[in-house]
Backbone:
Protein backbone atom coordinates (compact mmCIF):
# COMPACT_ATOMS: atom_id res chain seq x y z
CA UNK A 1 0.00 0.00 0.00
CA UNK A 2 1.34 3.46 -0.86
CA UNK A 3 1.04 6.16 1.74
CA UNK A 4 0.51 9.68 0.42
CA UNK A 5 3.35 11.77 1.78
CA UNK A 6 2.04 15.23 1.00
CA UNK A 7 -1.49 15.15 2.37
CA UNK A 8 -2.76 18.67 1.61
CA UNK A 9 -4.84 18.96 4.74
CA UNK A 10 -4.79 17.20 8.07
CA UNK A 11 -8.04 15.73 9.35
CA UNK A 12 -9.01 18.11 12.12
CA UNK A 13 -7.80 21.20 10.27
CA UNK A 14 -10.15 24.07 10.91
CA UNK A 15 -10.69 27.66 9.82
CA UNK A 16 -13.20 30.40 10.61
CA UNK A 17 -14.03 33.28 8.28
CA UNK A 18 -16.37 36.27 8.23
CA UNK A 19 -17.94 38.07 5.27
CA UNK A 20 -20.57 40.78 4.85
CA UNK A 21 -23.43 41.11 2.39
CA UNK A 22 -23.17 43.41 -0.59
CA UNK A 23 -25.83 45.39 -2.41
CA UNK A 24 -25.46 45.85 -6.16
CA UNK A 25 -25.66 49.31 -7.70
CA UNK A 26 -25.60 47.64 -11.13
CA UNK A 27 -27.24 44.24 -10.81
CA UNK A 28 -26.29 40.71 -11.77
CA UNK A 29 -29.43 39.10 -13.17
CA UNK A 30 -28.88 36.28 -15.66
CA UNK A 31 -26.15 33.74 -16.27
CA UNK A 32 -24.05 33.15 -19.36
CA UNK A 33 -23.06 29.72 -18.02
CA UNK A 34 -24.87 27.89 -15.24
CA UNK A 35 -22.26 25.17 -14.63
CA UNK A 36 -19.48 27.69 -13.93
CA UNK A 37 -21.86 30.38 -12.65
CA UNK A 38 -20.69 33.02 -15.10
CA UNK A 39 -22.81 36.18 -15.32
CA UNK A 40 -24.27 37.56 -18.56
CA UNK A 41 -22.93 41.01 -17.60
CA UNK A 42 -20.58 42.54 -15.08
CA UNK A 43 -21.97 44.20 -11.94
CA UNK A 44 -21.01 46.76 -9.29
CA UNK A 45 -21.70 46.64 -5.56
CA UNK A 46 -21.01 48.02 -2.11
CA UNK A 47 -20.00 45.56 0.59
CA UNK A 48 -21.80 46.49 3.82
CA UNK A 49 -20.36 46.78 7.34
CA UNK A 50 -23.46 45.16 8.91
CA UNK A 51 -25.15 41.72 8.93
CA UNK A 52 -22.00 39.54 8.78
CA UNK A 53 -21.94 35.78 8.31
CA UNK A 54 -19.35 33.83 10.32
CA UNK A 55 -18.51 30.29 9.23
CA UNK A 56 -16.28 27.56 10.60
CA UNK A 57 -15.13 24.64 8.44
CA UNK A 58 -13.64 21.72 10.36
CA UNK A 59 -12.26 18.68 8.54
CA UNK A 60 -13.16 15.33 10.02
CA UNK A 61 -11.66 12.14 8.56
CA UNK A 62 -14.33 10.05 10.33
CA UNK A 63 -17.31 11.78 8.69
CA UNK A 64 -18.99 9.80 5.89
CA UNK A 65 -20.61 12.99 4.49
CA UNK A 66 -20.37 16.74 5.02
CA UNK A 67 -22.48 18.16 7.88
CA UNK A 68 -24.04 21.59 7.44
CA UNK A 69 -25.39 23.54 10.43
CA UNK A 70 -26.73 27.04 9.71
CA UNK A 71 -27.99 29.22 12.53
CA UNK A 72 -27.89 26.18 14.86
CA UNK A 73 -30.14 24.04 12.61
CA UNK A 74 -28.85 20.98 10.74
CA UNK A 75 -29.51 21.47 7.00
CA UNK A 76 -30.26 18.91 4.31
CA UNK A 77 -31.69 19.24 0.79
CA UNK A 78 -31.03 22.20 -1.52
CA UNK A 79 -29.21 24.39 1.03
CA UNK A 80 -26.83 21.62 2.11
CA UNK A 81 -26.31 20.48 -1.51
CA UNK A 82 -25.06 23.94 -2.51
CA UNK A 83 -22.60 23.95 0.40
CA UNK A 84 -21.39 20.43 -0.46
CA UNK A 85 -20.88 21.42 -4.11
CA UNK A 86 -18.60 24.28 -3.06
CA UNK A 87 -16.71 21.99 -0.68
CA UNK A 88 -16.30 19.54 -3.59
CA UNK A 89 -14.68 22.34 -5.65
CA UNK A 90 -12.29 23.05 -2.79
CA UNK A 91 -11.51 19.35 -2.31
CA UNK A 92 -10.79 19.00 -6.02
CA UNK A 93 -8.32 21.91 -5.83
CA UNK A 94 -6.74 20.51 -2.65
CA UNK A 95 -6.67 16.89 -3.80
CA UNK A 96 -8.54 15.85 -0.67
CA UNK A 97 -11.52 13.59 -0.02
CA UNK A 98 -11.96 14.44 3.66
CA UNK A 99 -15.46 15.55 4.68
CA UNK A 100 -16.16 18.61 6.78
CA UNK A 101 -18.40 20.05 9.46
CA UNK A 102 -19.68 23.48 8.41
CA UNK A 103 -21.19 25.67 11.10
CA UNK A 104 -22.40 29.12 10.23
CA UNK A 105 -24.12 32.04 11.91
CA UNK A 106 -25.85 34.43 9.58
CA UNK A 107 -27.08 37.73 11.00
CA UNK A 108 -28.74 38.96 7.81
CA UNK A 109 -32.49 38.28 7.53
CA UNK A 110 -32.07 35.10 5.44
CA UNK A 111 -33.34 34.89 1.86
CA UNK A 112 -35.31 38.15 2.05
CA UNK A 113 -33.38 39.73 -0.79
CA UNK A 114 -30.64 40.99 1.48
CA UNK A 115 -27.87 38.98 -0.09
CA UNK A 116 -27.51 36.30 2.57
CA UNK A 117 -26.09 33.93 -0.06
CA UNK A 118 -23.38 36.51 -0.87
CA UNK A 119 -22.02 36.76 2.67
CA UNK A 120 -22.65 33.04 3.23
CA UNK A 121 -20.69 31.74 0.26
CA UNK A 122 -17.92 34.34 0.63
CA UNK A 123 -17.38 33.24 4.24
CA UNK A 124 -17.64 29.55 3.27
CA UNK A 125 -15.15 29.85 0.40
CA UNK A 126 -12.65 31.71 2.60
CA UNK A 127 -12.93 29.28 5.53
CA UNK A 128 -12.97 26.14 3.37
CA UNK A 129 -9.94 27.19 1.28
CA UNK A 130 -7.96 27.75 4.46
CA UNK A 131 -9.15 24.59 6.25
CA UNK A 132 -8.16 22.47 3.22
CA UNK A 133 -4.74 24.13 3.13
CA UNK A 134 -5.15 26.13 -0.10
CA UNK A 135 -3.29 29.41 -0.41
CA UNK A 136 -5.60 31.46 -2.67
CA UNK A 137 -5.24 35.15 -3.44
CA UNK A 138 -8.27 37.47 -3.44
CA UNK A 139 -9.01 36.86 -7.14
CA UNK A 140 -8.94 33.10 -6.78
CA UNK A 141 -11.11 33.32 -3.65
CA UNK A 142 -13.57 35.55 -5.49
CA UNK A 143 -13.77 33.04 -8.37
CA UNK A 144 -14.30 30.23 -5.87
CA UNK A 145 -17.04 32.12 -3.99
CA UNK A 146 -18.70 32.79 -7.37
CA UNK A 147 -19.17 29.05 -7.86
CA UNK A 148 -21.29 28.99 -4.69
CA UNK A 149 -23.34 32.09 -5.49
CA UNK A 150 -22.59 34.73 -8.10
CA UNK A 151 -23.00 37.73 -5.84
CA UNK A 152 -20.63 36.11 -3.29
CA UNK A 153 -17.73 36.90 -5.66
CA UNK A 154 -18.24 40.57 -4.68
CA UNK A 155 -18.41 39.96 -0.89
CA UNK A 156 -14.77 38.83 -0.93
CA UNK A 157 -13.90 42.44 -1.78
CA UNK A 158 -13.96 45.42 0.63
CA UNK A 159 -15.99 48.61 0.02
CA UNK A 160 -16.92 48.80 -3.69
CA UNK A 161 -16.49 45.86 -6.08
CA UNK A 162 -16.77 45.33 -9.80
CA UNK A 163 -17.40 41.72 -10.80
CA UNK A 164 -16.26 41.06 -14.35
CA UNK A 165 -18.17 38.99 -16.86
CA UNK A 166 -16.15 36.71 -19.15
CA UNK A 167 -14.52 33.31 -18.89
CA UNK A 168 -13.98 31.41 -15.65
CA UNK A 169 -10.47 32.88 -15.32
CA UNK A 170 -11.68 36.46 -15.97
CA UNK A 171 -14.81 36.36 -13.83
CA UNK A 172 -13.76 37.63 -10.39
CA UNK A 173 -14.54 40.77 -8.44
CA UNK A 174 -12.04 43.45 -7.50
CA UNK A 175 -12.15 46.73 -5.62
CA UNK A 176 -12.95 50.04 -7.36
CA UNK A 177 -12.65 53.54 -5.97
CA UNK A 178 -16.04 55.22 -5.45
CA UNK A 179 -17.47 58.43 -3.97
CA UNK A 180 -18.06 58.69 -0.20
CA UNK A 181 -21.39 56.85 0.03
CA UNK A 182 -23.55 55.02 2.55
CA UNK A 183 -26.69 52.91 2.35
CA UNK A 184 -29.87 52.79 4.40
CA UNK A 185 -31.30 49.27 4.52
CA UNK A 186 -35.09 49.36 4.91
CA UNK A 187 -36.40 45.93 5.89
CA UNK A 188 -39.94 45.69 4.60
CA UNK A 189 -40.32 41.95 5.16
CA UNK A 190 -37.67 39.56 6.53
CA UNK A 191 -39.54 36.38 5.60
CA UNK A 192 -38.23 33.87 3.07
CA UNK A 193 -39.15 34.92 -0.48
CA UNK A 194 -41.49 32.70 -2.51
CA UNK A 195 -39.25 32.32 -5.61
CA UNK A 196 -35.48 32.10 -5.06
CA UNK A 197 -33.32 34.50 -7.06
CA UNK A 198 -31.68 31.50 -8.74
CA UNK A 199 -35.03 30.19 -10.05
CA UNK A 200 -36.31 33.65 -10.94
CA UNK A 201 -33.12 34.40 -12.85
CA UNK A 202 -33.50 31.18 -14.83
CA UNK A 203 -37.15 31.97 -15.61
CA UNK A 204 -36.18 35.46 -16.77
CA UNK A 205 -33.58 34.13 -19.20
CA UNK A 206 -36.00 31.50 -20.55
CA UNK A 207 -39.24 33.47 -20.77
CA UNK A 208 -38.83 37.26 -20.73
CA UNK A 209 -38.97 38.88 -24.18
CA UNK A 210 -37.13 41.83 -22.60
CA UNK A 211 -34.12 39.83 -21.38
CA UNK A 212 -31.79 40.70 -24.32
CA UNK A 213 -32.53 44.41 -23.79
CA UNK A 214 -31.81 44.01 -20.06
CA UNK A 215 -28.40 42.48 -20.83
CA UNK A 216 -27.48 45.23 -23.33
CA UNK A 217 -28.63 48.08 -21.10
CA UNK A 218 -26.93 46.64 -18.00
CA UNK A 219 -23.59 46.35 -19.80
CA UNK A 220 -23.97 50.04 -20.74
CA UNK A 221 -25.06 50.99 -17.19
CA UNK A 222 -21.96 49.29 -15.78
CA UNK A 223 -19.68 51.32 -18.06
CA UNK A 224 -21.54 54.52 -17.10
CA UNK A 225 -21.41 53.64 -13.39
CA UNK A 226 -17.67 52.96 -13.51
CA UNK A 227 -17.16 56.30 -15.27
CA UNK A 228 -19.24 58.02 -12.53
CA UNK A 229 -17.02 56.30 -9.92
CA UNK A 230 -13.89 57.55 -11.68
CA UNK A 231 -15.35 61.08 -11.82
CA UNK A 232 -16.44 60.91 -8.16
CA UNK A 233 -19.97 61.79 -9.29
CA UNK A 234 -22.23 60.36 -6.56
CA UNK A 235 -25.48 61.69 -8.01
CA UNK A 236 -24.87 60.22 -11.47
CA UNK A 237 -24.02 56.92 -9.80
CA UNK A 238 -27.24 57.15 -7.78
CA UNK A 239 -29.38 57.76 -10.87
CA UNK A 240 -27.80 54.79 -12.64
CA UNK A 241 -28.39 52.65 -9.52
CA UNK A 242 -32.11 53.41 -9.26
CA UNK A 243 -32.74 53.04 -13.00
CA UNK A 244 -30.89 49.73 -13.15
CA UNK A 245 -32.85 48.37 -10.15
CA UNK A 246 -36.21 49.30 -11.69
CA UNK A 247 -35.15 47.78 -15.02
CA UNK A 248 -34.24 44.55 -13.21
CA UNK A 249 -37.64 44.44 -11.51
CA UNK A 250 -39.31 45.21 -14.84
CA UNK A 251 -37.60 42.27 -16.53
CA UNK A 252 -38.49 40.02 -13.57
CA UNK A 253 -42.13 41.09 -13.79
CA UNK A 254 -42.12 40.27 -17.50
CA UNK A 255 -41.48 36.55 -16.92
CA UNK A 256 -44.06 33.88 -17.71
CA UNK A 257 -45.48 33.17 -15.18
CA UNK A 258 -44.63 36.63 -13.80
CA UNK A 259 -42.79 37.25 -10.55
CA UNK A 260 -43.18 40.41 -8.52
CA UNK A 261 -40.84 41.01 -5.58
CA UNK A 262 -41.72 44.61 -4.79
CA UNK A 263 -44.58 45.19 -2.35
CA UNK A 264 -46.67 48.39 -1.97
CA UNK A 265 -44.30 49.44 0.84
CA UNK A 266 -41.29 48.89 -1.43
CA UNK A 267 -42.88 51.17 -4.02
CA UNK A 268 -43.61 53.74 -1.30
CA UNK A 269 -39.90 53.68 -0.42
CA UNK A 270 -38.94 54.37 -4.06
CA UNK A 271 -41.41 57.29 -3.96
CA UNK A 272 -39.84 58.49 -0.71
CA UNK A 273 -36.42 58.57 -2.40
CA UNK A 274 -37.93 60.86 -5.06
CA UNK A 275 -39.42 63.08 -2.32
CA UNK A 276 -36.05 63.28 -0.58
CA UNK A 277 -34.47 64.36 -3.87
CA UNK A 278 -37.15 67.02 -4.31
CA UNK A 279 -36.11 68.26 -0.85
CA UNK A 280 -32.47 68.46 -1.97
CA UNK A 281 -31.25 65.19 -0.38
CA UNK A 282 -29.67 62.94 -3.02
CA UNK A 283 -31.09 59.51 -2.11
CA UNK A 284 -31.61 56.74 -4.68
CA UNK A 285 -33.47 53.48 -4.13
CA UNK A 286 -32.58 49.95 -5.13
CA UNK A 287 -33.93 46.49 -4.28
CA UNK A 288 -32.70 42.94 -4.83
CA UNK A 289 -34.89 39.86 -5.28
CA UNK A 290 -37.27 40.70 -2.45
CA UNK A 291 -39.37 43.56 -1.08
CA UNK A 292 -36.63 45.21 0.98
CA UNK A 293 -35.33 48.53 -0.28
CA UNK A 294 -31.87 50.01 0.11
CA UNK A 295 -31.29 53.74 -0.28
CA UNK A 296 -27.95 54.95 -1.57
CA UNK A 297 -26.89 58.40 -0.39
CA UNK A 298 -23.91 60.56 0.51
CA UNK A 299 -22.15 59.30 3.65
CA UNK A 300 -23.06 62.44 5.64
CA UNK A 301 -26.76 62.23 4.72
CA UNK A 302 -27.27 58.63 5.93
CA UNK A 303 -28.85 59.40 9.32
CA UNK A 304 -31.22 61.95 7.76
CA UNK A 305 -32.29 59.46 5.09
CA UNK A 306 -32.78 56.76 7.74
CA UNK A 307 -35.00 59.04 9.81
CA UNK A 308 -37.01 60.06 6.72
CA UNK A 309 -37.96 56.45 5.86
CA UNK A 310 -38.43 55.12 9.42
CA UNK A 311 -42.25 55.49 9.26
CA UNK A 312 -42.34 53.03 6.32
CA UNK A 313 -39.89 50.31 7.40
CA UNK A 314 -37.28 49.41 9.98
CA UNK A 315 -34.18 51.17 8.68
CA UNK A 316 -30.49 50.91 9.53
CA UNK A 317 -27.43 52.71 8.18
CA UNK A 318 -24.72 50.65 6.50
CA UNK A 319 -21.27 51.98 5.57
CA UNK A 320 -18.78 50.45 3.13
CA UNK A 321 -17.50 47.33 4.88
CA UNK A 322 -14.50 45.00 4.89
CA UNK A 323 -13.82 42.11 2.52
CA UNK A 324 -13.97 38.50 3.64
CA UNK A 325 -11.45 37.70 6.36
CA UNK A 326 -10.07 34.78 8.31
CA UNK A 327 -10.63 34.93 12.07
CA UNK A 328 -8.68 33.44 14.99
CA UNK A 329 -9.78 30.05 16.38
CA UNK A 330 -11.30 31.83 19.40
CA UNK A 331 -14.05 33.12 17.05
CA UNK A 332 -15.06 29.60 15.93
CA UNK A 333 -18.77 28.94 15.44
CA UNK A 334 -19.75 26.07 17.75
CA UNK A 335 -21.95 23.21 16.57
C1 LIG B 1 -30.87 40.41 -7.28
O1 LIG B 1 -25.98 35.74 -6.40
O2 LIG B 1 -28.12 34.99 -5.28
O3 LIG B 1 -29.17 40.13 -5.65
O4 LIG B 1 -25.54 33.08 -8.55
O5 LIG B 1 -27.76 31.97 -8.59
O6 LIG B 1 -26.57 32.27 -6.41
P1 LIG B 1 -26.83 32.83 -7.80
O7 LIG B 1 -27.58 34.22 -7.62
P2 LIG B 1 -27.41 35.37 -6.53
O8 LIG B 1 -28.23 36.55 -7.27
C2 LIG B 1 -28.20 37.85 -6.80
C3 LIG B 1 -29.16 38.66 -7.56
C4 LIG B 1 -29.41 40.06 -7.03
C5 LIG B 1 -28.57 41.07 -7.79
C6 LIG B 1 -27.13 41.24 -7.39
O9 LIG B 1 -26.76 40.98 -6.23
O10 LIG B 1 -26.34 41.67 -8.27
Residues:
Amino acid sequence: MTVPIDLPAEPGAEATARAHPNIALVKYWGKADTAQNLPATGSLSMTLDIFPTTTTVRLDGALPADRVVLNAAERTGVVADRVVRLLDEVRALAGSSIRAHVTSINTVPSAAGLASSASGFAALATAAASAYGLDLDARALSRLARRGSGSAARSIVPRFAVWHAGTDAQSFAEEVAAPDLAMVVATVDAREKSVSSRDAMKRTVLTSPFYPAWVDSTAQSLEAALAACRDGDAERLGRITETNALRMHAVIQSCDPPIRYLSPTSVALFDRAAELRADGIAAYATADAGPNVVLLCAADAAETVRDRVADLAEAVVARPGPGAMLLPASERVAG
Remarks:
- Residues 1-8 have pLDDT under 50 and may be disordered.
- The first strand starts at residue 14 and ends at 19.
- Residues 164 and 170 are 7 Å apart (CA to CA).
